[in-house]
User: Fold these one by one.
Assistant:
Number 1:
Amino acid sequence: MNLPIYMDYHATTPVDPQVVEAMLPYFTEKFGNPASRQHQFGWIAEEAVESARNIIAKAIGAEPREIIFTSGATEANNLAIKGIAEAWKQKGNHIVTAATEHKSVLDTSKKLEKYGYQVTYLPVDEYGLINLNHLSEIITSKTILVSIMTANNEIGTIQDVGAIGKLCHGRGVFFHTDAVQAIGKFPINVQTMNIDLMSLSAHKVYGPKGVGVLYVRSINPKVKLTMQMDGGGHERGIRSGTLNVPGIAGLAKAVELVVGLMDVETKRMKNLRDKMWNEFQSQLDEVYLNGHPTQRLPNNLNVSFLNVEDNALMMSMKDVAVSTGSACSTVDLEPSYVLKAIRVSKERHHSAIRFGLGKFTTEEEVDYVINRVVESVKKLRELSPSYYKQKRVVNV
Ligand SMILES: *Cc1c(COP(=O)(O)O)cnc(C)c1O
């Protein structure tokens, strides 16, 4: 077993060697620009892109032409929300999202507020779920878009996307979902779930960084949106810019692998994740699960170890890579807005650790992390005067 141990798979994942292999030819001998229609080099690159489009479309129940390649999910989220806002401003200016969305959705929404759009940030319950009745009540004739993520990157909570999609379609409102964390964890079908726009990212599923997808529905209803990256009109005029061919080839391979292995891997990760949680509960007191107990990503465990400061715990086990709060909001050290939204107590908030398991996580690593966490929590609690006092009182 190699140290340090990586248990932060919600932040990013290593590229699968099979994905690297699928990408390599497109850096060197097959280097053409897929937009070059006049020669072989272009055709070969275009063939790779169209094959990737087919694979990804098939994995989510879409048509190939509904797959728009982007530089990642941040761009896909920006394009979906700003693109709809700009194209449909005659119809209305109201957008609905949730308080627990990724920063690329929240900050895009905030930006639109500056330009006169009205955004409702739906609250969530203690498990991180939105309320469908509440959503239904908030939609008006001015509502043009609902954007709710499929699964949360911090607490792992899975929304009932199918029900949200059905509700939106019944009311004639477009539905966008950020499915970055969900793809490959459980089946996603844009038809049965009534999804109009969906964001994906390669580097969360063992693909390369810097490439992603926006699925854009082309029929029932056709989704019209305004290009945000102006230029040559690539990708059916929805996203300009020369395509990242090696990245796209890698993304397709990554999606194919992660969807193909879904049943086996999901079960395996869930077992390892449950082992961790069971061991924490049996070996430590005052541990709390953040997020939904069952409607949850199989590889996510977000736990508060009461009376232990999250950063102190992380520092005391430097050979284990986990995360406190959200790793996505890079520099800011403010407490996690997702934990705030589910209204955990201050104590739980400041003692929360996110464990993210993945394809390369072994049982040996899980056992090591369990021991390391238990040992560190016990040691830190010994040092914590408040906890010590509390314990003594209990013992007396
Ligand atoms: C990582 C992540 C993103 C951002 O994806 P990038 O491709 O890194 O821009 C968006 N949404 C969620 C839920 C994520 O986990």
Number 2:
Amino acid sequence: MGFDVSTLALYLWVLVATVRAGVIRLSDEHEDEMPCRTYTVNGLQYLDCSYRGLNDLPAGIDYDAQVLLLSNNNFITFPTSLKNFTRVEVLDLSGNHLSRPLPSYLQEWTTLSTLNLSNNNYDTWVSDGQRYTIKRLDLSKNKINSIEDDAFKGMSRLHFLDLSENRIYDLPPQVFAEAENLDSLYLCRNYLSDVPRFQSHSMRVLTLSSCQITNIDVNSLAGMTSLLEIDLSINQIETIPDNLASNTLQELDLSFNSISSLSDRTFSSLPHLAVLDLRGNEFRDVWSTSHFSSNPFLREVRVKGNRWSCEGFSVNLLLTYEFLTKEPPKITDQGSLICYSPSNVTQLSWQQAYIRTWHPNEATTESYTTIAVMIGIIIGIVITSFVCRGLVMINRPDPPRAAAETTVLNLNGTIPESRVDSVVMRVPLREEDLPPSYDEALLMPRLNSSFHSLPDFVDEDEEPARQYRRSRSIGDLMESRPRAGDRRSVRRTVEIHIT
Ligand SMILES: *[C@@H]1O[C@H](CO)[C@@H](O)[C@H](O)[C@H]1NC(C)=O
Ligand SMILES: *[C@@H]1O[C@H](CO)[C@@H](O)[C@H](O)[C@H]1NC(C)=O
Ligand SMILES: *[C@@H]1O[C@H](CO)[C@@H](O)[C@H](O)[C@H]1NC(C)=O
């Protein structure tokens, strides 16, 4: 009992200590919260007012900050004293409730290069005819559904634009034409049904992942004269138009769509294609190497997650396999070049399926070894069975002839005890002497004595006719009743006499 109390006291002490430590830590955090924090990293002066629940900026802050972090507050409009800053380079207003156009004084911030308005309430983005020096603009996670034609006209330095996770159904092709330095555009998770036919001489990276795109127009890339990479993954594209053209495109990501076939003209107008991602599509027929004859710079192809059919076992399997895997390999994961059907080659590589079908004799030494082992095992089994059979013959107590003599002797009623067992054993070995049928078995008397009682019983029994029946089953030995009409019994009796 005393032990229990002290254990309880210990637990209580630990509990109190834990709670107190927690309280101390909480109050530490609280102290930290009051004014915005200022610090310097890499020579840049930071003012961090993020996560403060602010509606406006507090008074008495340092307006010399170069990196102004105001994210995750409650700003509905741009805070009034924001205009007191003069040399901000990075303005992070993500995670607020902003929805109005940029304040005009931002034009005068000639140092401003990054503006983060991610996760706010914008539902439209309009042009106000002003010019900004912004290079990186993050408008992701808003509710933008319409963008004016000249919305980015005043952002001639814009290099990176993120419009992911908005509600954009359509974009005017000219919208980025005058953002003449726009390099990377992110439009993931919108509701575009077509690849937009943007006009841009600067755009190099376009990301259109998870946009519910079903259609690629043959000219969709033509207006982007510098495009290097396009990400069209996780859409609902079923076909790539023949002669989809771009003189610059190097990386084409079409993974996780519903594409089922390629033709010799699919990539024929993409002369600089180097990286092709076609994972997770619905390809079944193994491609022909001719599909890639216009793509001399192709260096990486991703194909995992397609259910290849090797049906037909044409030499194409081998050629395409070699095209994709020969040094330097274009496939990083060779395990992806495997047959899904037909069932006799499931899980085999394209190469193995072809070789095993058409050149089974060229199978690897491995299969020879397997065959040799199998033959060895079979021979072993045969020899063992012969040896066993030989041993059984040697150990058999009486050859058939001796048994016949025994029977004759037995009929005369002058048998030695040991020979009776021989008779009993020999008869069931005869071909005609099948075990009793079920019906016959039902007619038989029940066995209620052990086999050991047999010799004694035989001694007592003087009737020769009954002894033959005895050999039929142990049950008979206990039964003195004759079994009239038993054909099998009669046949056996006759047979023994012959023997
Ligand atoms: C900040 O701007 C407000 C007006 O927006 C002005 O009244 C105030 O004096 C400015 N503060 C400083 C320190 O310049
Ligand atoms: C904008 O802020 C969000 C979250 O605060 C962050 O994930 C994102 O990377 C930022 N964007 C840029 C361009 O820095
Ligand atoms: C698999 O079955 C096809 C018939 O569907 C046959 O042509 C081919 O030779 C078989 N391949 C192997 C490796 O057994």
Number 3:
Amino acid sequence: MNYRITQRAASLSPSLTLAIDAKAKQMKAEGQDVVGFGAGEPDFDTPQHIKDAAAAALAAGFTKYTPSSGTPELRQAIADKFKRENNLDYKPSQIIVSCGGKHSCYNVIMATCQEGDEVIIPAPYWLSYPEMVKLAGATPVVLQTTDQSEFKVTPEQLRAAITPRTRLFILNSPSNPTGSVYAPEEIKALGDVCVEKNVLIMSDEIYEHLLYDGASHRSVASFGPDYYEHTIIVHGFAKAWSMTGWRLGFLAAPAPIAQAIDAVQSHSTSNPNSFAQKGAVAALNGPQDHLPKWLAEFDRRRRFAHEKLNSIPGVTCCNARGAFYLFPNISGTGLKSTEFCARLLQAEKVAAVPGIAFGADDYIRISYATSLANIEKGLERMDCFVRRLGK
Ligand SMILES: *Cc1c(COP(=O)(O)O)cnc(C)c1O
């Protein structure tokens, strides 16, 4: 049998972050003392009232298909969230609930991009964006940034990259993998370019609530009707409510795009899990008092890790005011990211993700979604590892 794999599928590489996390978990299961900095998820449990709402829905038999784009109740709760927190008016019909924020991104790209289109993606990028763009048959156009600019693209850089083929610009603030946060006026300036050049923006705002050092988040859609009309917001429950395994994300889009995605989803996954959606309503409409506690803990770890990383010779780390990642520059060690991470795991049993996965080979990603004790232990080991390299 000739198992011919389509070019579309064969052109993808499996997710390296998931692979490293799996490798670290496997070493741990074998009894090895591994410190994992690979996690792309909070280490906190889902708040109890959210679990209770889903459990009650399950017990009550809320176990059938829902409308494919989500229950009216949840879409209304999401519309209310956009009004309350972002001052944005979306009708529930403009909201699509999907099987995770990743699925929401996929739906947006599938519904807006095709052969011949270019999609502008600032690097370091979330590793799934370019792969999704390729799956859609479109071409990723990567804009390099460095720690010199806190990994932010400038409006000039964006403008210079736009061609008549440019269809979409992907903005992710706060950012995975860098933790970088664009200031509101920086967001507006990028939005100005997209509005002027008639380029759609996919704004991935899943880390909206995870901010430190007084940083603030402003959605590009909120600067006025023109911005709103050019923007599709992607969001989800994974990060601020620690619901990664629930597989629930959502998007808010101009009506024609929402309609198209509704159709795509109705023929692919259909609705996300019914009783998980009940939990999501509780997540949005219930108390948010878990968040300040989580943020205080994340912030403590962030400060410690940032200082410790900068004390390691050959390593520098710029400040990161969002998400739960730091993205230190390791070029001073003389190693590129893949070799650095492979040897670090081998020699010191510390798992970090090589920056090459995010389009930035001089960096590694450190997730601080793990205990302070682990962070102390892991970074101490990394310090020893790097000092030995120099000898
Ligand atoms: C975690 C994440 C998502 C969504 O993850 P899901 O688990 O699919 O909800 C989307 N974008 C970025 C940048 C992320 O880090």
